[in-house]
Design brief:
This protein has 78 residues and is mostly helical. It has 2 helices and 2 strands. It has helices at residues 18-29, 36-56, and strands at 64-65, 68-69. It comes from Candidatus Methanoperedens nitratireducens.
Length: 78
């Protein structure tokens, strides 16, 4: 099945920090994206896919041993 209808886009205004804007412009200058808008659209699309997948995964409850939480990384005491 071929998608023949153009995707509808709307114009909006956002405020992002200089670092993100500069990195987006770099990708455009390198020819990896056609515009900063394409970079942001791709980033948001990937975010929403990840977000939806995360929502479908049940949250894991912390494991406990003898009433104390199980540590997931080493801790130095003293």
């Amino acid at each position: 099945m071929q998608f023949s209808q153009k995707r509808l886009k709307e114009t909006t205004s956002i405020t992002i920090n200089k670092y993100l804007l500069d990195k987006s412009k770099e990708l455009v200058e390198k020819g990896e994206f056609g515009s900063v808008s394409d970079v942001i659209t791709t980033a948001l699309s990937e975010f929403f896919v990840s977000y939806e997948a995360h929502k479908k995964t049940p949250a894991q409850k912390p494991q406990e041993t003898d009433g104390a939480p199980l540590l997931t990384r080493p801790v130095t005491i003293g």
